[in-house]
Amino acid sequence: MSGEDGVQGEKKSLWGMVREFAIIIVIALLVSWTLKTFVIRSFHIPSASMEQTLEVGDRVMVNQLFFNEIQRGDIVVFDDPGGWLAPGISEQYKPNPVLVFLGLQPADAGTQLIKRVIGVGGDTVECCDDEGHLLVNGEPVDESAYLHPDVAPSDVPFSVEVPEGHYWVMGDNRSNSLDSRYNMDSAGGPYIPEAGIVGEVFVINWPLERLRWMGGADPAFETVPDTPAG
């Protein structure tokens, strides 16, 4: 082999390596984009409305593929149905473009909220019985596993029937959560439509000392019947 052939061979080999590296990068970016768009996303907790379960500064991972239907007790991220967020709130959200690109921060979180599902379509949700418990389909719900001992299930009485295909949601910090109870007159109403659900929180992944699995059925709602009593 002549010296010229050797140089050409080296050039071809170098080009092949560059091409293979470029293909790997493109595939990795496509996989990352697919995951953060259709499978899982990371969200930052900006307010105290879900304390003590979720604290300000926590980062959570959200499952966007519903292998199981949303159940009572699930913590979900959802799009503002209309009028829940004060004017100007979405404009205050300034996502880091690098974190958005890496899938560590959503670009549209300024228009989304996070709450716990208390009632699903067809449920009757009421507050409260003589012991101060929420009633779902006539069954009292013991929420002591996620409510702070000093926080009442609700400071305001209510009784609602959740429309089919919708959810009634409440924050765990009941005295500091503008949830379904306080959006009766909002443009989008107090219920979250199925189409507005972004995903279900399944893990707290940051900070590391708060690493915690969030999936699985909530035992607080195990005794709730599927249809209202009576």
Task: Provide a concise account of the structure shown.
This protein is α+β, with helices and mostly antiparallel strands. The chain has helices at residues 3-39, 89-92, 97-102; strands at 40-44, 59-63, 75-79, 112-120, 124-127, 134-136, 139-141, 158-161, 166-170, 192-193, 197-206, 212-213.
- Indicate the mean pLDDT: 83
Instruction: Assign the CATH architecture.
Output: Ribbon
CATH superfamily: Umud Fragment, subunit A
Provide the low-confidence segments as ranges.
Answer: none
> Helicity level, as a percent range?
10-25%
Structural class, please? alpha+beta
In angstroms, what is the radius of gyration?
23 Å
The top level CATH class name? Mainly Beta
Instruction: Determine the number of helices (DSSP H or I, runs of at least 4 residues).
Output: 3
N→C terminal distance: 92 Å
Q: Can you summarize the main beta sheet?
A: 8 strands, antiparallel
Shape summary: elongated
One letter per element, helices H and strands E, the order comes to HEEEHHEEEEEEEEE
The total count of strands amounts to 12
How large is the share of residues in beta strands? 15-25%
Question: CATH topology, what is it called?
Answer: Umud Fragment, subunit A
Tell me the count of domains: 1
